Amino acid sequence: MLRTTPTGGAARGTAGGDRLVSIGSVLNQLRDEFPDVTISKIRFLESEGLVEPQRTASGYRKFSPEDVERLAQVLRMQRDHYLPLKVIREQLDALARGEQPAPRHPGAPGDPYDPGAECDGPTATRVGRTELLAAAEVSEDELAIWESYGLITPAADGGYDAQSVTVAKLVAHMGRFGLEPRHLRAMKAAADREAGLVEQVVAPLRRHRNPQTRAHAEATTKELADLSVRLHAALVQTALGVRLC
């Protein structure tokens, strides 16, 4: 059953208006399980269409118990399975339709890279050099060249994280269009500059004595990284005059 909000829009019904809570109350409910969650993170998930709170006539967000549980589901799927927001949205929509979505794991064998997918964080799993070569379908010599240009850097233990696997696949794919590592140095330099801007924002938070503030720095880093990637993609598409759906 749909109810009409004070702004006149239709919204999901609840057992009573008194069950609707503010974003601050939502934050308090979620922090027991997700101590790193912030108000900015909740607003970000709303902007991505993962939750749709009601609005009062004055514009304040009001969340139902169903909204709070949906946010908890999103945060669990990010934390436990490192799923991109696009995949999380698809899975929650499928559950809402009564379907049982198939499990998805970024970087799993046989799971091709989706150029339009978002990445919300690296997995804890590392792969060896042999696995990386197999995933990107390239030779040892090609990987050595990529590393010489700084496009891929192994960890101290010699392994590679999920982001390195993604970079390798993308570099290999762009190579099929004739783009060589030397052509991609500009992209790497731009990425380093963007990372530097993010570091300027979060560095004061990371130096703070309060553990919650330092945790907020990590959440802010992830959000700014995501926004930076989206802005970069939008600017490139605008420059080329193309639109990706």
What this model shows, in words?
This protein has 245 residues and is mainly α. The protein folds into 3 domains: 15-96, Multidrug-efflux Transporter Regulator, Chain: A, Domain 2 (Orthogonal Bundle), CATH 1.10.1660.10; 108-179, no CATH class; 190-245, no CATH class. The chain is 53% helix and 4% strand. The protein has 9 helices and 4 strands; from the N terminus they run ββααββααααααα. It has helices spanning 23-31, 39-47, 65-81, 85-96, 129-136, 140-148, 162-175, 185-206, 211-240; strands at 2-4, 10-12, 54-55, 61-62. The strands form 2 sheets. A two-stranded antiparallel ribbon has the order 1-2. Helix 5 (129-136) runs parallel beside helix 7. The radius of gyration is 21 Å and the shape is globular. The protein starts with a strand and ends in a 5-residue tail after the last helix. The model is unreliable at 1-16 and 105-124 (pLDDT under 50).
Give a short overview.
The chain has 245 residues and is mainly alpha-helical.
Assess the beta-strand content as a share of residues. under 5%
Helix/strand order, N-terminal first: EEHHEEHHHHHHH
- Describe the global form: globular
What is the rounded Rg? 21 Å
CATH hierarchy class name of the largest domain: Mainly Alpha
Strand order of the largest sheet: 1-2
Unreliable spans are 1-16, 105-124
Number of strands: 4
Beginning-to-end CA distance, first to last residue: 32 Å
| Tally of separate helices | 9
Mean pLDDT: 79
